[in-house]
Amino acid sequence: MTVIELAKYLKVAEKITVLTGAGVSAESGVPTFRGSEGLWKTHRPERLATPEAFTRDPELVWEWYDWRRRLVAKCQPNAAHITLATWSQTYSKFSLITQNVDGLHERAGTATTIRFHGSIWELCCWNRCSSSPERWTDERVPLSPIPPLCPACGHLARPGVVWFGESINKDVLTRSLSSADCDVFLTIGTSGVVYPAASLTKEAKLHGALTIEINPEDTPHTEIVDARFKGSAAQVLTAIEAIRGTS
Ligand code: OAD
What we know:
Layout lengths: L2 H10 L2 E6 L2 H4 L12 H4 L2 H4 L2 H6 L1 H16 L5 H12 L2 E6 L5 H5 L4 E3 L2 E8 L10 E2 L19 E5 L8 H10 L4 E5 L11 H7 L3 E5 L12 E3 L3 H12 L3
Parallel strand pairs: 1-2, 1-7, 2-3, 7-8, 8-9
Antiparallel strand pairs: 4-5, 4-6
Helix pairs in contact: 1-11, 7-11
């Protein structure tokens, strides 16, 4: 399938679902997790992104999240985020499921992003106290104090993200699975190795969707999708949109 063919297909498709990963934010300057310069090359996930790590050393975990918040605060959405935001405003049945916690899709103007792994801009009470909301937004950069505290009970607050070993929010999972029942499913900038997000492409295929991958590298999805576009998210989406938006 060529870019022109896909753009024409998208023009007439009704229900479009996109799954994004760290690669979509790479061109904004946000580091990915895997690959030669990925975060997991220099940081061990089990020391920073598990409930056990937080129990052991909440200050260390929060310092890492605060560093990432400061880094992301300086980044801007790129052409990939902007094209997807345009689609979210163009199609009445458009779903964007992101594994990214950086909030760049929302900053680009995508209104209803399904945040599969939560948001670094949200906090939760570690004690799950009944007086605080389930999660609240705190966009202060840098955060102070570190570790931050729950304003209701004064105990520790935790980042509003999903850590290794934790389950995906039930509502998020239900909405994602229902979005996988679509006409076109695009998986963009994700290594496709973290479950259950990685299972959504197969799910879409079972529903008969046209499945597309955009990624400069091969992934486990490359062999199962109907068409793959080898390139950066910003480049490929800009090329598609130049045709879809005008033809
Ligand atoms: P990864 O770092 O695993 O994968 C990033 C993917 O983006 C790779 O396949 C790259 O080839 C691709 N990529 C790099 N630059 C790109 C570009 N400019 N355009 C398009 N693609 C590009 O990130 P994720 O797949 O998002 O989870 O990782 C999934 C989850 O693993 C994350 O949400 C995070 C992580 O551990 C948690 O923290 C729970």
